[in-house]
Structures are given as C-alpha cells and as structure tokens.
C-alpha cells in the first residue's frame, strides 16, 4: 500500500474546514466523546438541537448582535459575557479567546458550553 502524501491530507482537511459545516453524526460523536450526553441533565439530542438552532451546524459562524457584541461558533457563544474578542468589553467568563470557539476540533466551544449550561438557567441561558 502506498502512503498518502501529507499535503493531500492537509488540503482535504482545509477543504472541509472551508465548508465549515459539521455533519450531525460527526457532531454527535464529538459531543458524546466530550461527555455532553446527560451533562446537567441534557441528552445528546438536546445538544444537537441547540447547535442546529444556533448555527445550523456551521462551526465558523459569527453573528453580530444589536448591542455590538458577537456570537461565535457552533453554539453561538456571546463575546459580552463568555469570551474575549478584543473588540468590546467582555466578562470573559470562559477565559477563552472568541476565535478559539471557531476551532474545528470544537473543544474550546464545548468546554465553554458546559460552563454556560451549568448556570442557574441551564439551556435557557441561550
Ligand atoms: C458559516 O459562517 C460563516 C461566518 O458567519 C459564513 O461566512 C459562511 O458562509 C457560513 N457557511 C455556511 C455553509 O453557511
């Protein structure tokens, strides 16, 4: 068997990355791996619905709000409270750079989403 040159792997990854959409099944797998199924009482289907409603599974989605803050990534996490976008005042409660919430590995966003859902309102915080 011949080895696949690294450049092909990298460019196909970049092509996927450009598309910025993650499939429902791939997302379910990552969420499961990161122990979100049942986290704070929310099943995997709750998390999938949240991601779909917020971003239509677009991992690089950025949306500007009326107050000048921005929502980032799959879970549309807000820069006013949760991440630092270096543009406007932020509480930065997740101690994360907003750009990291767009990373295709999804880890920073999942970590921050866990923090948000752990607050009093649970998923109503979205
Ligand atoms: C994903 O979001 C980015 C940033 O908001 C946007 O430029 C891009 O067109 C979106 N991709 C899809 C497939 O909707």
TrEMBL record:
PROSITE patterns: GLYCOSYL_HYDROL_F22_1, GLYCOSYL_HYDROL_F22_2
Superkingdom: Eukaryota
Location of the Glycosyl hydrolases family 22 (GH22) domain: 94-112
One Pfam family linked to the record: Lys
Gene3D superfamilies cross-referenced by the UniProt entry: 1.10.530.10
InterPro entries, A to Z: Glyco_hydro_22 (IPR001916), Glyco_hydro_22_CS (IPR019799), Glyco_hydro_22_lys (IPR000974), Lysozyme-like_dom_sf (IPR023346)
Annotated SMART domains: LYZ1
Signal peptide (from-to): 1-19
Keyword check for Disulfide bond: yes
Keywords from the UniProt entry: Disulfide bond, Signal
Family membership: Belongs to the glycosyl hydrolase 22 family.
Protein name in UniProt: Lysozyme-like protein 6
Organism: Saguinus oedipus
Gene, per the UniProt record: LYZL6
């Amino acid at each position: 068997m011949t080895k696949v040159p690294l450049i092909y792997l990298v460019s196909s990854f970049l092509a996927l990355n450009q598309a910025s959409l993650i499939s429902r099944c791939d997302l379910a797998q990552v969420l499961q791996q990161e122990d979100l199924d049942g986290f704070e009482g929310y099943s995997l289907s709750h998390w999938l619905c949240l991601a779909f409603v917020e971003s239509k599974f677009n991992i690089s989605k950025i949306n500007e709000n009326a107050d000048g803050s921005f929502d980032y990534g799959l879970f549309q996490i807000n820069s006013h409270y949760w991440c630092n976008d270096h543009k406007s005042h932020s509480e930065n409660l997740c101690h994360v750079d907003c750009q990291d919430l767009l990373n295709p590995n999804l880890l920073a966003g999942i970590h921050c989403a866990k923090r948000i859902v752990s607050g009093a309102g649970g998923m109503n915080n979205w």
